[in-house]
Design goal:
- The protein is of the alpha+beta class.
- It has 4 helices and 10 strands.
- The chain has one domain: Gcn5-related N-acetyltransferase (GNAT) (Aminopeptidase, 3-Layer(aba) Sandwich), CATH 3.40.630.30.
- Strands 1, 2, 3, 4, 5, 6, 7 and 8 form an 8-stranded mixed beta sheet that branches. A two-stranded antiparallel ribbon has the order 9-10.
- The longest helix is centred in the middle third of the chain and has 15 residues.
- Bound molecules: coenzyme A.
């Protein structure tokens, strides 16, 4: 199996896998309050592709911030494998790849909402998320966290917040006698 970065062309296939892997209404889950209108981190958005080029699985991470100090962290997920291909190792391979890439990029804290039985072998625990809160209802036992750098969650507590995307660049302009004009460099 091959894992590569997601490209814009994959969007429809990824959406299709998400629609078929999760129950309808996934966008109403609390985790989506942190994702809505925020693009996933492009360098941490991966797909698992089949030899023919088809997308078999998807994993994305989102930027988040924790507490008053806005400690930077990342939200893992959604992770989803094409239902026809589940149980073949695609999910685990994406998890290993994604976490290694996140660590390499210098991220220190990862949180997620998911089945503990699946994520605990990757180092996620409920205890690590004990002092964190999500901006909406969630089953507490499914709210997990992991340090990518030991000690990164020490003293970190509070509400997990969205990280809004940078506003699009708008060229500076000035008023002139003739109306608006672009500023000279
Ligand atoms: C959960 C999911 C990502 C796992 O990926 P996968 O490629 O099917 O699974 P893998 O082949 O990597 O791993 C299979 C192992 O995980 C276990 N597993 C699969 N789903 C699990 C779950 N929800 N809870 C606990 N263990 C699970 C299997 O029992 C199997 O265990 P084994 O290795 O001891 O036999 C995939 O089944 C999926 O997309 N499910 C629907 C969407 C979802 O629930 N996403 C995760 C929540 S964000």
């Amino acid at each position: 199996m091959t894992i590569r970065l997601e490209v814009p062309h994959d969007a429809a296939a990824v959406d299709d896998i998400l629609d078929r892997s999760f129950a309808p209404g996934r966008e109403r889950k609390t985790a989506y309050r942190l994702r809505d209108g925020v693009p996933p981190i492009p360098s941490l958005s991966f797909v698992n592709v089949l030899p023919g080029g088809g997308v078999a699985a998807t994993l994305r991470f989102w930027p988040i911030a924790i507490g008053w100090d806005r400690v930077p962290a990342i939200l893992l997920g959604p992770l989803a494998v094409d239902p026809a291909l589940q149980g073949l190792g695609f999910g685990k391979a994406l998890m290993r790849h994604g976490l290694a890439a996140a660590a390499e990029e210098g991220h220190r804290i990862v949180v997620l909402v998911g089945d503990p039985g699946y994520y605990e072998p990757f180092g996620f625990t409920r205890a690590m998320a004990e002092n964190l809160a999500l901006p909406g209802p969630v089953e507490a036992h499914r709210f997990l966290a992991r340090e990518l750098v030991a000690g990164s969650l020490q003293g970190v507590h509070g509400m997990i917040q969205r990280v809004e995307p940078e506003p699009a660049f708008v060229p500076p302009c000035r008023l002139s006698g003739a109306g608006l004009a672009f500023a000279e460099p």
